[in-house]
Specification:
It is a single chain. By secondary structure, this protein is mainly β. It has helices at 5-8, 62-67, 192-199, and strands at residues 9-20, 39-50, 81-84, 89-91, 96-98, 100-108, 116-124, 142-151, 154-158, 163-171, 178-191. Helix content is 9%, strand content 45%. The termini are far apart.
Length: 201
């Protein structure tokens, strides 16, 4: 008898409050966001975690693992697990939407006595460049990357401080052509029940 997936996994749910726009020090194209315009939006996400050690359906497949950042080459990292984004992102207070296609997450262990870091990404459709709505700012299609301190090696206890949003794009800023991390904005994360009470949706 097959056990339903929702019995084999559970989720830790949050709302992302994301502000896309030009940040100091970014390697994005100089024309991108030069006007200072910003795109603010929310995206609800679920960190999938296992309920059953015998059949861990929260584990990510090879495609998701391949898209994760390689920022912890010398440290210890958890397995990569799946991240769901069940609803489209809400832009312009809900007047616009952007499809999201889930992603992946892992925890990079900190040094003894230090917090660990959760790293995750969400795959998004993005927004069109040069639109009359957003001007010279756009959300790049593909993966948006996020990281935050977490405590007790758990996504149940994430920092409420502001973090940065990045994308991966090819460039020469490091001295040779390679995939670079480029800052495209900032974000905060709030537990979903708290966010729903505050936002009324």
């Amino acid at each position: 008898e097959t056990v339903p997936e929702d019995i084999m996994t559970s989720s830790i749910d949050y709302r992302l409050y994301i502000e896309i726009g030009r940040e100091d020090g970014t390697w994005m194209d100089p024309k991108w966001g030069a006007s200072g315009k910003r795109i603010e939006f929310t995206s609800d996400i679920s960190f999938l975690v296992p309920n059953n050690d015998e059949a861990d359906l929260s584990l990510a497949d090879s495609d998701v693992v391949a898209k994760m950042v390689k920022d912890n080459l010398s440290g210890k990292s958890s397995a990569v697990r799946r991240l769901d984004s069940p609803q489209p992102a809400r832009l312009r207070g809900g007047f616009d939407q952007m499809r999201c296609h889930g992603g992946g997450w892992r925890i990079d262990a900190g040094k003894p006595g230090r917090s660990s870091t959760v790293r995750f990404y969400v795959d998004v459709d993005g927004t069109s460049e040069g639109s009359s709505t957003y001007g010279d700012i756009s959300i790049p299609k593909g993966c948006l990357y996020f990281s935050l301190p977490c405590f007790n090696n758990s996504v149940r206890q994430l920092s409420n401080k502001e973090g940065i949003v990045t994308v991966r794009q090819m460039g020469w800023h490091t001295g040779w052509r390679r995939e670079e991390s480029r800052i495209v904005g900032v974000f905060r994360i709030v537990p979903i029940e708290q966010a729903r009470k505050r936002d009324k949706f």
